[in-house]
Amino acid sequence: MTIDFTRYLAESGPRYLAIARALSQAIRQGELVPGTRLPPQRQLADTLNVSVQTVSRAYAQAERMGLVQARVGSGTWVNSQDDGREPAYLRNTEPRSEQSTIDLSIAHPICPETHEQRFRDTLAQLADMCITDVISANRPIAGLLHHREQASDWLRQRLGVPGDADTRVLCNGATHGLMLAISTVVQHGDVVLTEALTDHGLIALSRTLGFQLRGVAIDEQGILPEALELACRRFQPRAVCLTPTQLNPTGATMSEERRDAVADVLQRHDVWLIEDDVHALLEPPGLTPLTARLPLRSFHVTSLTKSTVPGLRAGYLSVPPAQFHHTLPRLRATCWMATPLVFEIAGAWLADGTVEEMASTQRELLAERQRVATRILRQHEHASRPTSLHLWLTLPVSWRAEELRLQAEQEGILLTTATPFMVEQTPAPRRIRLSLGAEPDITRLEHGLRQLAELLDDTPPPMMQIIY
């Protein structure tokens, strides 16, 4: 193992944390690959001129961070970067039994029967229409012109995203759009900045595309302009990927003043902005996207999955004019073109006001569930937006996030900790994300929240205290 610990040991703070940070960086950059055995503690202590106890604490810290695994009689081994960080709901490939668990783990809009009926009605209408151009479509790669024109009018008028049909790309959901945008301007090994806690999909993309993702400090409005300024000076990033509206998992939403300050930093450092605006319709009209402030240096990504029905994988990517022809080959390589039938449905809904109607209903239903959650969990500190899919809950001092998740799962409640959303391999905050939309029945949701409140007021079982 050849890792340069010098820089980390020179930093202020406990030396065991410096060693753990060095291990984290080595794993992130591929210097330590999964399956590598770390040196014996005494050997590394002698090499670094520190005590064996310091190395022991460093290895224990790395294990708590999910970086390594200690095996009795065999040593300490590097985990896969995905071990322990992928949310449980992504690892579960089986359909969930309706009565088996109460799901507070997955980001999912509420799907009332009215939404399902609207979907069926639209499919019936399409069956009676002549859609030869849709079912025989093979080009243009960016999407059929009438679909892009419908999308462009909506993006400009409702969300305030600059551009026209010639700069819009249709894609299979927001994650696909993010991949296209990032791969257009970011090369393998480039640094990309984002919020210290961000959507786990972006973290997965960093591993897939091979860029270095760095987290920047956040507060209740999202990324801090001062911290972004320092990070731009230190890392000289190629791009910055931000979620200004309802950041997952915290729900942080930037004010217009914060957006101005962030845009000013990005403009002065001349870096690409990739704006993930997938939650835009969960806020009432009025917020101006960052993209509108930096139209020539920014990509805007959104979709309809969080505000209408999740199965409608209609994603919209707005591209700076000079980059459009660099994005198209990446679209062609990943899926040739987005599924035209999906955008025939989405376009009809954009044209007749169904999207805005569904989004308004979604906001009303989520607001009701946020009020229910706030009432039940009123004794526990939490942050949320009035119409957010999530609630960001601080745990009592007696609980650690992972032990609460395990105990809740035993009692039939699925939760998500902060770990999957952490960009840097640092100790996880004692927080959990509660998703309020996955349960179609609000009575079941209320029951699950009451069970969780009882758990929070209790203490961990003795076995869990021993494990930790």
Describe this entry's structure for a reader.
Helices cover 44% and strands 13% of the residues. It has helices at 6-10, 15-28, 41-48, 52-64, 88-91, 113-127, 132-135, 145-159, 174-185, 200-209, 225-235, 256-269, 324-335, 340-352, 354-376, 401-410, 442-457, 462-467; strands at residues 68-71, 75-78, 102-103, 168-171, 191-195, 212-216, 218-219, 222-223, 239-242, 272-276, 298-303, 315-318, 382-383, 390-394, 413-414, 416-417, 431-435. With 468 residues, it is α/β, with parallel strands linked by helices. It folds into 3 domains: 6-78, Winged helix-like DNA-binding domain superfamily/Winged helix DNA-binding domain (Arc Repressor Mutant, subunit A), CATH 1.10.10.10; 88-108 and 356-467, Aspartate Aminotransferase, domain 1; 130-352, Type I PLP-dependent aspartate aminotransferase-like (Major domain) (Aspartate Aminotransferase, domain 2). The two termini are 29 Å apart. It is built from 18 helices and 17 strands. The radius of gyration is 23 Å and the shape is globular. 44% of the residues are buried. It has a 7-stranded mixed beta sheet, with helices on both faces.
